[in-house]
Design a protein that fits this description.
single chain; five-stranded antiparallel β-sheet
Length: 335
């Protein structure tokens, strides 16, 4: 691999982490930084993850798109050998030159790919992932309730209860909101190709694959493709059969609450790690986060669609209590 310097480099964009070469019809990848051991091992770990993800997607054996297979990873010399993805990067200017039939092939292939990578791992709800996916430096996946209990010496309990109530509302309201799915994580025009001769759509580079909110995946990650009509892509994606249900749309009320709870969690965790540092200032910051949460909770309760859910839960509990009372009275009379 010492001869790599004489090979043709094919990634024309400014590489952040990886240099890509062409040799004998195969792609060879090497890290940009070849000296820093920590960076090298991080790069190697990402390449191994990329192989695991691409292997999982390839198991779907879907002919609507192509994913290059990883053939070799060298942990000693820090290089990766892959199959080559043919075609041109799907830039806006290139897509404009394509006939409608080719554009249709691209949308169909992309929808199939997203479905396959999403279904390659467990689809989760926001409730299931909030604590673990908003892990903070000092307390890991501690719950909002536990954090609130730790803040009782600094914040009025009524305010802290509002945060706990908000988290409970979020858990119920988000249960049927946008799912958390495993996704590509770095969709841009340098990672998606189309060959007009073979009509083949290719997707590469899974080093940054991770779980994402499905709404974010479509409307932020894939929206980086300037030519993409996300509404059309979502429609084609939702029409495909799924082993696990995926909800795509994230309601703004739920998104705002999730972000507010996340900010509270980070601020509270950082403060509790060292409460003697700028105590008054940081307590004030936490109180401001709580006020945002309280405002969002009041707005949520004022919306009928969310009130119905809350009322329904209360009614169900009341029915259970009533049934228990009836059973108790009935047993008393029998005696």
């Amino acid at each position: 691999m010492s001869k790599l310097d004489n090979l043709q480099q094919i990634n024309t964009n400014v590489p952040r982490e990886t240099l890509v070469y062409l040799a004998d019809g195969l792609v060879i990848k090497r890290p940009v930084d070849k000296k820093n051991k920590t960076i090298l091992n991080t790069w190697l770990g990402k390449q191994k993850q990329a192989k695991d993800v691409s292997d999982a997607v390839l198991e779907a054996k879907n002919k609507n798109y192509f994913v290059p297979r990883t053939l070799e990873i060298s942990s000693k010399e820090y290089f990766v050998v892959e199959e080559r993805a043919v075609g041109k990067p799907l830039t806006s200017s290139y897509v404009e030159t394509l006939p409608q039939k080719d554009v249709d092939i691209i949308y169909k292939g992309l929808a199939h790919f997203i479905n396959d990578i999403n279904q390659s791992k467990q689809v989760l709800t926001q409730k299931e992932t909030f604590d673990s996916f908003t892990s903070v430096m000092y307390f890991g996946d501690i719950s909002i309730k536990d954090l609130a209990n730790k803040l009782k010496d600094y914040i009025p309990e009524t305010d802290l209860q509002s945060v706990i109530d908000a988290k409970e509302w979020f858990d119920v309201a988000s249960d049927n909101d946008a799912s958390i799915v495993f996704a590509h994580g770095d969709m841009n025009e340098h990672n998606i190709f189309f060959d007009q001769t073979t009509k083949k759509l290719s997707i590469i580079d899974f080093a940054d694959s991770k779980y994402q909110n499905a709404d974010y995946m479509f409307n932020v990650d894939f929206a980086r493709l300037g030519w993409l009509d996300t509404k059309r892509l979502i429609k084609e994606y939702e029409a495909l059969p799924k082993k696990q249900k995926v909800n795509v749309i994230n309601k703004p009320e739920i998104k705002n609450m999730r972000n507010a709870l996340y900010n509270f969690k980070n601020s509270a965790s950082e403060f509790l790690h060292n409460p003697k540092l700028a105590t008054k200032i940081r307590i004030e910051m936490i109180k401001q986060e709580i006020e945002k949460i309280k405002k969002l909770l009041n707005e949520a309760y004022s919306e009928n669609k969310f009130q119905k859910g809350t009322i329904l839960l209360k009614e169900q509990n009341q029915i259970k209590d009533l049934n228990n009372i009836v059973k108790t009275k009935s047993n008393t009379k029998k005696r």
